[in-house]
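Dear colleague,

Following up on Tuesday's group meeting, I ran the structure prediction for the two-component complex that the binding team flagged. I've pasted the input sequences exactly as they went in, so you can double-check that nothing got truncated or mislabelled along the way. The structure tokens for the whole assembly follow below. Feel free to forward this to whoever is handling the docking comparison.

Inputs:
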Amino acid sequence: MITDLRRRVVIETPEGVSFSIYLAGPFTRFLAWLVDCLLVLAASWFVFKLALQSVFLFGNLGFAFLALFYFASGFLYRIVMEWRFHGQTLGKRLLRLRVIDSGGLRLHFSQIVIRNLLRVLDAMPFFYLVGGLTMLFTKWHQRLGDIAGNCVVTYLPEDGTPDFAQVLPGKYNSFRDYPHLEGRLRQQVSPQEADLLVQALLRREPLDANERVQLYRELADHFREKSSFPETATAGITDEQYLRNVVDTVFRGRR
Amino acid sequence: MIIDLERFITKEQPYWNELQSILDLLDRRTGHVLDLTAVKRFDYLYHRTASDLARISTFSAEPAIRRYLENLVARAYAEVHGARRKEKRFSFPVWAFQTFPITFRRHLRAFNMTVIVTLVGCAFGALVVATDAPAKGVILPFDHLLGSPSDRVADEESATEDRMAGNRSMFSAQLMANNIRVSINAMAFGLTWGIGTLILLFYNGIILGAVILDYVWAGESVFLVGWLLPHGSIEIPAILLGGQAGLVLAHALIGFGSELSLRERMRQVSPDLVTLIAGVALMLVWAGIIESFFSQYHEPFLPYSLKITFGAVELLLLTAFLARSGRKHEMGPKETAGVVHST
């Protein structure tokens, strides 16, 4: 069984279903903030160059615009991005973070504005010390702006659907010819062992080929000890196919 | 018991995919509205996926699929339950002439408190300068205010060239940025239970009181009013409104006399805070332009009577605007509170 050490908010819907939202930690948030700062700096450099050019056309007005841009860019960039992209700036998008309402609801514009304006307090006395410390000591990793804006920063799961094909049997399962032995196997495999097995198959691709062979061999040996399928059912199948047969047997359950 | 995962996934996956495609569409197109048939379908898919999540959570500990379903349900939940009662297109005239002044009046007690604290600060600043003139150097942060007021007036009135020439726009932008920053600070310091906001207002009051007394004692009252009133009639109330937002935030944080939770109180006041601070920003843009392009010019270039009249008219209009504008549309406190109940 995999234990998730990340903090999470559990929300119970009126329909009686609970779901978890995984909270982003201070370090990930710091990285996202850093990416955004670099982007704003790059944009500021570009605007500065433009202002230099515009002095010939508009005189002092170009620098006036630059002064206002420097002041507003820190706030406006984040407010506009988080509103337009549902709680994500470019930095947050890169690190798979999203600001959401602390009750799991859709963010309102006022929440976004408040959390971003209150950065002035979180940034005090230097380098977000107040905000960082508040994040460390609050249950939901919130800085002061998040508390006032009633929102949390969450970590998004991987895009798209899980690779269901990895856990579904693609080939003929030779164990099915022995339903009474399958029944015995189901009784002997605990949910934790079944989880471990599914995880090992789901993560097939990221695993190094040699490590995968070694892991599957150890797992197959473990499950062979729990089962007593005759040689006709197991002859000629790889360790991986053996494990897929076990998953099929365990999760197929009783029809 | 472990559910039949194969059959479960094969049967339910098309519904999950359909729900995901609707959610992706809503994510891509901000403000996209589904028609009635699509809403019904979306609601059905949400409930079906939520039910699948409940099943998989109860009968199986398969984490990847559970996390995937949790993510789908969380996104759909936010759309279903977080929908505003009625989406209204933002209208600047409605906001400026109704929402802003109504919000100001709704929190009039907080504004009155900011006025009192600033006036006490003014009195204190005046008292300090009256009893200990050298203390002016400690209180006043601007070099051009440290010298003799009469010398400055003589210097300004004898100027033969436009000292602001070429710098007006830049000066104006700096004033706007600085004053807006001070106002945002006044609001943000509300999170220190209002203590920071009150200190900031008190300190602003001290500076104002010290300057006023210094110029009045030097017999330069007309210059002072002509210099401060054109922009100060908007700038000072704007900073007071920033302080008002800070005290509203502090009140919500402390929750004195309220039965609502902290989250509900914050949810209740956040639209008002944004309205107030946006109004303040607009006022300060105007004040910045006036200070740079009008206030810094004195007699004989601009007669003081004109500057004082202009400032007085501004102050009257602002007072009338904040006191009267949008009265017809004002509703009771319950309707205007803007509470969004989450569940």
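Chain B touches chain A through 74 residues (CB under 8 Å).

Cheers,
M.
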